[in-house]
Design a protein that fits this description.
single chain; eight-stranded mixed beta sheet; alpha+beta
Length: 336
Amino acid sequence: MKRRDFLHATSLTGIAVASGTALLSCENRETEAEASVANAEASFKITPIAIATWNVPDAVGKAWEILSDGGKALDAIEQGCRVEEANAEGQSVGIGGLPDRDGNVTLDACIMNSEGDYGAVVYLQNIKHPISVARKVMEETPHVLMAGKGAEQFAVSLGFEKENLLTEASRKAWEEWKVTSEYKPVINIENHDTIGMLAMDAAGNISGGCTTSGLAYKMAGRVGDSPIIGSGLFIDNEVGGATATGMGEEVLKTVGSFLIVELMRQGMSPQKACEEAIGRIVSKNKERLGDFQVAYIAMNKKGETGSYAIHPGFSVTRATEEEITNTNSKHYISDN
């Protein structure tokens, strides 16, 4: 072979080897990138979860039943809340709720879906399931909030049955209260008045609900935080959700649930966001902390949850693929 031909052949071989090496390197990088994406997706795998304020395993269990069957978070919220509303022995929401000072059981509730739609009812009487009426307000009216007789008439027009919500046990408790007519909320008893629930489904969508009979023996017409968007409940499907329980007046003054979601948007964990929201209330009420309880629960898009209360005694019920559990929440009094 002539020297010129040899050099030409050698050059072509070198180019081929280099090209092959470069192609292999490119393929390896693509494979590594695909593996990295797969690992990232696996680490953020969406797993359904439901959490609620207080010890309500039946309610959360119903929500989980829907989620585990591929159902939507909004349906899980409604059906889960309905379980507790129908629990006449609970004396906290729905039938059997403790009445106002005049002996009337008045109910408040709200619901939010993953699109940011919201519906609520306040001062609703004679209808056992305010959470379902709230959903109807959201889905079938141009409004977001209905009150009193108007809300009741709307519910009846849709087929909801009217019934006496004052059970014998709650009536007797009211009669005993009238002996002194002293209005002094008892932490974790009269304030165990609200079921707030958050759920994320298999599609990663978050919804929430909040339902209550309000503070026992309240003034007629009183409305707390539970049905008010941003206070008793707030959902932003890009970030997460939060809901409250306890003394509604204090939650209203700090728009606590909205605050928690915004803090999570800024990068806080659900736990730290709940702690900050409680801290805002504590800082303004240090002289009267012994008079009331407030507690929050929160969830972000990763399915991470948090809870915090002013006083001990508050608990959270959680349902996941593993089990349904009820655990005591961290609280300000012990942490400080």
